[in-house]
Design brief:
Elements: H1 2-22, E1 33-36, E2 47-48, H2 52-57, E3 71-79, E4 85-91, E5 103-107, H3 108-114, E6 117-118
Length: about 120
C-alpha cells in the first residue's frame, strides 16, 4: 500500500514539474518589437549573429557595434524540444544586418534574461 502511494506521489510531482516548465515559455507574437542591447561579454551568446568570417566573405562589414540599440521585429517563432523559444528577427528600418543578412535567429528567453534583447 505504501509503495503504491509513493509511486502515485512521484507521478503527480513529475507531472506538476513538467507543467511548470512548460509555463516558463515567454508569450510572443509575430510583429513584436524588441531592441538589441550591447552584450555583457564581447560576443552575443543567444542572438545568433553569423560569425565574422562569414560576414566578411559575403562582403559585409563585421562590426557588432552597428546593431547596438537597433529595433527588431519578430518575423517567426518556434518552440524547440528543450522548451526554448527560437525567434527569427528582422530590422524594423528595413535594412539588412551587416549589409547582407535579412534575418537573424535568437533564443528568446535566454536573450531576454542575459539582456541581449529588451522588450
Amino acid at each position: 500500500m505504501n509503495r503504491l502511494l509513493l509511486i502515485a506521489l512521484c507521478l503527480l510531482g513529475g507531472s506538476l514539474s513538467l507543467q511548470a516548465q512548460q509555463m516558463q515559455q515567454t508569450s510572443i507574437e509575430k510583429g513584436t518589437v524588441l531592441t538589441i542591447n550591447e552584450p555583457v561579454s564581447d560576443q552575443y551568446r543567444y542572438v545568433l549573429f553569423p560569425r565574422k568570417n562569414f560576414i566578411i566573405k559575403r562582403g559585409g562589414i563585421a562590426n557588432l557595434k552597428s546593431v547596438y540599440g537597433k529595433e527588431v521585429e519578430v518575423v517567426d517563432y518556434s518552440y524547440t524540444d528543450d522548451g526554448d523559444t527560437r525567434v527569427t528577427l528582422k530590422r524594423t528600418d528595413g535594412r539588412k544586418f551587416f549589409r547582407n543578412f535579412k534575418t537573424v535567429d535568437a533564443y528568446l528567453e535566454d536573450a531576454l534574461t542575459a539582456g541581449e534583447l529588451v522588450k
